[in-house]
Amino acid sequence: MPVGTETTTAFERVQLARHPDRPYTLDFIERLFDEFVELHGDRRFADDPAIICGSARFHGLPIVVVGHQKGRDTKQRSYRNFGMPKPEGYRKALRVMKLAEKFGRPIFSLIDTPGAYPGIDAEERGQAEAIAFNLREMAKLKVPVIVTVIGEGGSGGALAIGVGDQVMMLENSIYSVISPEGCAAILWKDAKLAEQAATGLRLTAQDLFAENIIDKIIKEPPGGAHNDYDQAARYLDAALSERLAQAVSYSQEERLTRRYKKLRAFGRWGTA
Hints:
There is one protein chain. The protein is of the alpha/beta class. It contains twelve helices and eight strands. It has helices at residues 10-17, 25-32, 74-79, 87-102, 120-124, 127-140, 155-159, 180-188, 194-201, 205-210, 229-248, 252-265, and strands at residues 34-38, 51-58, 61-68, 107-113, 145-154, 166-170, 174-176, 216-218. α1 crosses α9 (194-201) and α4 packs parallel to α6. The longest helix is centred in the C-terminal third of the chain and has 20 residues, at 229-248.
């Protein structure tokens, strides 16, 4: 698979974003944050292992980190539900983000999910409502929110923890309303045309930066983040430090206004 920046196609980046050895949220937490304490449960139904939440320190600064978590082996993938959260996962994430707001802690959100879990049990417990509620409440959080897509950014399942002052993507991550396979199955009744769909969806970090959907592309080690976790973490560390400093440089009112305008601009096409 070609992995050079000059030759990597959209679908090749999809494959890199899904690489089974790609660093996940817990891998970055281990390398970037000190004194991480995980918090569990949404106080309404259950805990959702597909989303990791907790308090930590980032270069000595108290912060909160939220992120999707996939599994490495069959047992872990089943436990983490392949990184597809249920409504209690999003409610847990918002509960912890509200704690961050209460104690004045910046929030780091790490996105890596193929999408929200579409099972009937999740729908019965209010999956769509949980996602919509998070969008509204994240737009109003009074503390800085820095979002990074570290792998897959799948539809509302990603956006539900993706409203922030700064939205960044790792070089070989993706962010889209639908998977290339799903798009191809709908448009052409053939999921095998996923490569063509990936190009049309404009789901790469490079495409989204050009459309002003994201604020920064974060470099990865040669061949992809899975080849060197430590170097990938160093690149992410530098980007988080830079963008957090930028976010805190604004007044609270200005930060909220800019965040809301960013969210409202998603999906805008052309200049009209």
